[in-house]
Amino acid sequence: MQINKLLLIIKREYLAKVRNKSFVVMTFLSPILMVAMVVLIAYLTKLNDNEKRIIAVLNESDYFSQDFLSTESTGYVHFRDIDLTTAKDSTDNLGYYGLLHIPDASGLEQVAENSVFYSKESASTSVLDNIEYVFQERLRQRQLQNFGLSSEEFAQMDDRFEINTSTYAGEHNLKGINELKAAIGGAFGYLIMMFIIIYGGFVMRSVIEEKTSRIIEVIISSVKPFQLMLGKIIGTALAGVTQFGIWIVSAGILMLVALTIFDIDPAVLGTKADLTAGMVGNMPQIPQGQETLELYIKEFLNLPIVTLLVFFLIYFILGYLIYSSIYAAIGAAVDNETDTQQFIFPIILPLMLAIYVGFFSVFSNPHGPIAVGFSLFPLTSPIVMLMRLPNGIGEGGVPIWQLVTSIVLLIITFIGIVWLAAKIYRIGILMYGKKPSYKELFKWLKY
Amino acid sequence: MNNILVANEVTKRFGQHTALKNVSLEIPKHSIYGLLGPNGAGKTTLIRIINQIIFPDQGTVFFDGKQLKPHHIAMIGYLPEERGLYKSMKVGEQALYLAQLKGLSKKEAKERLKYWFDRLDIGDWWNKKIQELSKGMAQKIQFIVTVLHQPKLLIFDEPFSGFDPINANVIKDEILELRNAGASIIFSTHRMESVEELCEHIALIHESEKLLDGKLSDIKKAYKNNVFEVGLEVAEGDALLMELRDKFQIKTANFDALEKQLDFKVQLPSNDSRGVLAYLSERANVNQFVETIPSANEIFIRTVQEKDANK
Questions:
Q1: At CA A430, angle to CA A424 and CA A435, rounded to 5?
Q2: Distance in angstroms (rounded) separating the CA atoms of residues A77 and A68
């Protein structure tokens, strides 16, 4: 009987949300807008890159004959046996981007010192950077040769060096994998935060609507206020899950279609593509080497996916229930949405804190004292703990006692907060015309 | 058991404020019970306690002889004073939802809704949204939703507010019809003329306390103050009035010389009117002799004022 009523309420709340025009528009328009945006950015970037800059080089010196070679984005045209004025004129006439003049002088340093780049408008930094780099390399090479290094030795010196890292067990792991792991955890944490803020707000507005339309007293003469609150929270969450599901699926499909149509290499998009799938985080640069890439994939597959998903669900459900019941209590306490501001800020604060602490502290040291503290504190743990969890549980990961403590604390808080929120809700929904203060809310708890 | 609802020494406090203080009531079956009182007297608090929306700090409430329990809400229909409906939900869907919350099956609810929609002429509103309806129309739907599950006890808090006189009459007839069909009804209002019309029993609550309750006719008897309205057909009205003033306590009086009509009010020491009637009929033709019965409104005002004066 009571369960039936709860199901009825959940169904009504779900349908009311899902049928809402703005919800429908949001659900179906957002992925299109987002994909359109990504495609537009990618397309524009591609356009930008397609514009090849051509730079004329008038080299009168004995140096740099092999250094300015055309690349994909910049082409070099070498002028010979003409004077500077003619070179400038022809550069301008030919519509080239600019003219690099390398004069003849007694030594490399002098040559470099007296070289000038002429252009119609002030030159873009990317062009200058390229040219400067060439000069710098040559100067450095010359300097080292002066110290007695041969060209081969110089080439060797320039080899990149990457340190190999390993666990004590001897398993090779990768530099940057911590960041990758934290980014995956961060994506989960961010998802929880967004969900709480968006759908907690929906719960709140739904409560306010029932209050202002004065249907509330009719309903709570049939069901307990707590049932109504719970039904509302669950129904709204289901609507949210539906929306997120549609977003992820449709954004994925649209992205695929769009990329095929516009013939854009997905790699160009890099992190942007992940954004649409609800994943946010600074993905580490994918190293070029095939071997390294394989290692990354292996490492990725080694992530405790099942553990992650299970704990994501636990933290997601508990976190959402805690916050949305606070939102429901706020909705019950006020008569209109403008009065909610003073109460909403303190709720968003721990969420923001969790995200920032997560991104700054957990990324650099997943098991430092700050990370541990915030992953135990119940109002931040759903987000921060998820950022730590990709390292696994137990050795090398989150100690079991921390995980258990965190969940126990979360459950205790959940019971406490829902109890308090239900009390405020029960009183608040029948109070009209009172602008509530914290003092007033505290009094309600004693009714 | 002749009472549908008994409240026993019910007290409810909100922080420092006492909303109800030792209120006891007996609401008989198959009748209309008027719950009267000024604004903020505690009527709504009492009604909410009956609906188990809030719970008393002290005292108990019995429903049909048994202590009030959550399952009783299926047997109570409540039309609150502050009432409304979901604005963006369709009429039919909404009525079905509310009926199902009261425990009706979907099929049953649908059939009964059809019946009531026909009865109150609102058949084609099923697919309209509440925001498209006028206030009166929405009120009709709320009334239907309140009575749909055929509750034993109906509670109407200001049921006529928001209705035009014609529809108010329709609703009044429906309430009487429900009473005749066996429902017990609590009727909370400020409109005293509807109390006179509908209620067999009343209770008056003022400043959290019950001041009086009982059968309306008994209360009226108790509040009679032996004032009689008299009309005499007499030529020498002024002279007679002088004479009467000596013998009796005459209140307002008026003599119309043209019509030879003398009207006045007389206050008697007791309910026994035989003496004065005999005296009058010897001297003039008595064409009116009526005991004034206080209206519910007068009783209401007098009781509240007496109470305030005693403080």
A1: 70
A2: 9
Q: Enter the CATH code of domain A53-159.
A: 3.40.190.10
Strands B76-79, B32-36: pairing is unpaired
Place B184 in a pLDDT band, splitting at 50, 70 and 90. Answer: very high
CA distance A242 to A249: 11
User: Which residue among A210, A218, A223 sits closest to B80, beta carbon to beta carbon?
Assistant: A218
CATH numeric code, B225-291: 3.30.70
Chain A closest CA to B194's CA: distance in Å?
24
Chain A residues within an 8 Å CB radius of B83: 214-215, 217-218
In this structure, which topology does domain B3-221 adopt according to CATH?
Rossmann fold (3.40.50)
Give chain A's radius of gyration (CA, Å). 31
- Residue A287 corresponds to which tokens in the numbers above? 């190293």
A80 touches chain B (CB under 8 A): no
- To which H or E segment does residue A166 belong? strand A165-166
Domain locations in chain B?
A: 3-221, 225-291
Q: Does A8 touch chain B (CB under 8 A)?
A: yes
State both tokens at A84: 């500077």
% residues pLDDT > 90 (chain A): 13
Q: What is the domain partition of chain A in residue ranges? A: 2-44+176-445, 53-159
Test A215 with B86 for CB contact under 8 angstroms: yes
Q: Which residues from A are below 8 Å from B102, CB to CB?
A: 222
SS3 A76: strand
SS3 call for A40? helix
The per-residue pLDDT for range A31-69, each reduced to its tens digit, is: 788 778 888 887 887 776 666 778 888 888 877 777 777
For chain B, the three-class secondary structure string (H helix, E strand, C coil) is: CCEEEEEEEEEEEECCEEEEEEEEEEEECCCEEEEECCCCCCHHHHHHHHCCCCCCCEEEEEECCEECCHHHHHHEEEECCCCCCCCCCEHHHHHHHHHHHCCCCHHHHHHHHHHHHHHCCCHHHCCCEHHHCCHHHHHHHHHHHHHCCCCCEEEEECCCCCCCHHHHHHHHHHHHHHHHCCCEEEEECCCHHHHHHHCCEEEEEECCEEEEEEEHHHHHHHHCCCEEEEEEECCCHHHHHHHHHHHCEEEEEEEECCCCEEEEEEECCCCCCHHHHHHHHHHCEEEEEEECCCCHHHHHHHHHHHHHHCC
Stated length of chain A: 447
Query: Which residues does chain A have within 8 Å of residue B109's beta carbon, measured at their own beta carbons?
Result: none
Distance separating the N- and C-terminal Cα atoms of chain A:
28
For residues A245, A246, A247, A248, the Cα torsion angle rounded to the nearest 10 degrees is: 50
CB pair distance less than 8 Å for B97 and A12? yes
Calculate how close chain A gets to B80, using CA atoms only, in Å.
7
For residues A123 and B32, give the distance between their C-alpha atoms in angstroms, rounded to a whole number. Answer: 93
Which helix (H) or strand (E) is A243 found in, with range?
Answer: helix A225-262
φ/ψ of A395, rounded to 5, equals: -60, 130
Q: How many CB atoms lie within 10 A of CB A425?
A: 24
Instruction: Answer yes or no: is the ipTM higher than 0.90.
Output: no
With both helix axes pointing from N to C terminus, report the angle between A177-212 and A225-262 in degrees, rounded to the nearest 10: 130
- Report CB contact under 8 Å: B84, A214: yes
Same fold, B3-221 and B225-291: no
Q: Are A202 and A13 in contact (CB under 8 A)?
A: no
User: Does residue A165 register a pLDDT over 70?
Assistant: no
Q: What are A257-279's pLDDT values in tens digits?
A: 877 776 655 555 444 434 333 33
- Say what the pTM is: 0.74
Q: Do B85 and A215 touch (CB under 8 A)?
A: yes
Q: Work out the pLDDT band at A301, boundaries 50, 70, 90.
A: low
Does the distance separating the beta carbons of B98 and A218 come in below 8 Å? yes
pLDDT mean across residues, chain A: 79
